[in-house]
Amino acid sequence: MVEDKNKEELRHLVRIMNTDLQGAKPVQYALTGLPGIGRRTAILIAKGAGVNPAATLGYLPDEDVVKLDTAIGNFEDLVPTWMLNRQNDLATGEDKHLLGTDILLTFREDINNLKKVRAYRGLRHERGLKVRGQRTKSTGRRGSTVGVSRKK
């Protein structure tokens, strides 16, 4: 009978940081559904909030979910600077950890800035070529290609 009661309490979707996370997964894997949080980061957040990382997210009481939400908001205080994903920001010069849509928008903005100042990396992005020094003679041919027409 106890198992039936627990199955009724399982919330299949848990809302954290304006994102729906899967309640059937353990906390350490469910938090990775947020952009900007990986497995190692998720474990640190769960421990910082005082929640068992192996506990199923859907069975957590509302108080623990609120603790997780605040721990995600205060992530910069929980970890050393080298673990943050936005160190020495170009605009402000501060160290911060971006989450959700902020990380996607900032990444796109950085690439646009590289294109605007005509940096080498920006030019490679514009042309759809490899950016990080990989060889391009025979690999990376996916993308904009012109097929060879056959003689009839």
UniProtKB/TrEMBL annotation:
Located at the top of the head of the 30S subunit, it contacts several helices of the 16S rRNA. In the 70S ribosome it contacts the 23S rRNA (bridge B1a) and protein L5 of the 50S subunit (bridge B1b), connecting the 2 subunits; these bridges are implicated in subunit movement. One of its GO terms (cellular component) is small ribosomal subunit. GO terms for molecular function: rRNA binding; structural constituent of ribosome. Residues 132-152 are annotated as: Disordered. The keyword rRNA-binding applies. It comes from the Archaea. PROSITE patterns: RIBOSOMAL_S13_1 (PS00646), RIBOSOMAL_S13_2 (PS50159). Belongs to the universal ribosomal protein uS13 family. Keywords: Ribonucleoprotein, Ribosomal protein, RNA-binding, rRNA-binding. This is Small ribosomal subunit protein uS13.
